[in-house]
Structures
1.
Amino acid sequence: MSHNLTLAQNHAFDLARTLMVPVILFQADNEFGVMVSSEYDGDQDAIVHEYAPWSPAH
């Protein structure tokens, strides 16, 4: 978990490209986390962004 959104976004995109699977960047309280999209079963409102490995960085 990270308190820095920019750092979490960079790690999320890197993880998606490394694993070649979509990952979810989510917020829990004041922290951000990243996990494989297929494993995420949390609150849909907590999702900040989904990163796909075949999409360009933004």
2.
Amino acid sequence: MRNKYFWAAIFWTLFITVACLVSNDNFGELQKIQMPNKDKVLHATFYFVFTILWSYGLRTLKISDVRKRRMWAFIIAVSYGIIMEICQGLFTEERTPDVVDAIANTTGSAIAVFVLWRYQKRHFKKKSPAY
């Protein structure tokens, strides 16, 4: 197990794939929760976690520059979110592609990039005064 974040990112990607392509009936308990824009918050949360995991998981591919990893994680997340929306239209009868879901995915990913940037800026500043 060379990079736990890489394997966590793989698992999370599979989880999102299944969650996006199975019937809404499988989420009966979740549907009982009353919250405005629950679906969009869920999309943003999924892609927030996705981006963080892939940002750290990309170290396995020898991308050592944290800025490049954040950028690639964001690009992968946005692309994957769009692909999942298209797949919902092509491979499911109950679900349809939704541009607003893709925007929520992108928003969650963008927030993750910002959080990573702030965290890494503070972390590296403490480690190296020359940052």
